[in-house]
Amino acid sequence: MRTTLKILGVKIDILDLTGAVNRVIEFTKQDSAARPALIVTPNSEMLALASSDQELFNILNSAQLATADGIGVVIAARIMGQQLPERVAGFDLMQQLLANSASGERSFYFLGSKPGVVDQAVNNLQEHYPDLNISGYHHGYLNQENTAEVLQEINQQQPDLLLVGMGAPLQEKFLAANLSRLKVKAAFTVGGSFDVIAGQVNRAPRWMQKAGLEWLYRLLQEPSRLGRMMALPYFVYLVLKNRFIK
Prior knowledge:
InterPro entries: TagA_TarA (IPR034714), WecG_TagA_CpsF (IPR004629). It comes from Halanaerobium salsuginis. The protein is α/β, with parallel strands linked by helices and about 250 residues long. It has one domain (about 5-245). Helices cover about 50% and strands about 15% of the residues. It is built from 13 helices and 8 strands. The protein has helices spanning about 15-30, 45-50, 55-60, 70-80, 90-100, 115-130, 145-155, 170-180, 195, 205-210, 215-220, 225-230, 230-245, and strands spanning about 5, 10-15, 35-40, 65, 105-110, 135-140, 160-165, 185-190. It has a 6-stranded parallel β-sheet with strand order 4-3-8-7-5-6, with helices on both faces. A two-stranded antiparallel sheet has the order 1-2. Helix 1 (about 15-30) crosses helix 5 (about 90-100) and helix 2 packs across helix 13 (about 230-245). The longest helix has 14 residues, at about 145-155. The mean pLDDT is about 90.
């Protein structure tokens, strides 16, 4: 049975990483005729955006699994008088799913990132997991023509898990528009994860991840993210307003 709490009106699953992995694996066992499950990983920035983007808000709440991707979401739950077991980052969830599927138990399709980057990500994964079942991949720079081709290829391959890394909210809106037409068991939004796997972007050291400072590490790597980071204090303001101002 699904147990959730709400942050700014968006449902977040009360699960640790192991629980989230098990939930996704259950999705991949469902009947092929069932509607594909949507898996999203809201962070503070996305939740702040959803507060003023009704379409994104509705998409996040339509998901069958929404994990707390960011220490800000965990802290927000505490402010609201609730508790999340831990932060469940989308990248960590994806890594665990890939490791649990290393013998080919489940098939994957990778969609997203720049041309060439997703190719390198797939190559790196195949070196690390030689038996990983990757049914296909394509970059995320889509137009009307190649979107139709990609959707057709996905439906021909019928992967268990479709991983979409286009960044928020593009990836969520892409799936909202197309998921009902796709022959997959589940679709999972993974943001910039392909860039990390391809070696284009470094992830924060483990101690910074545990300290909730991964956002700072990313900002130091990519100063152009400063404008996006302004969503964080706005998120804090929204949470405090929601908690204390009725």
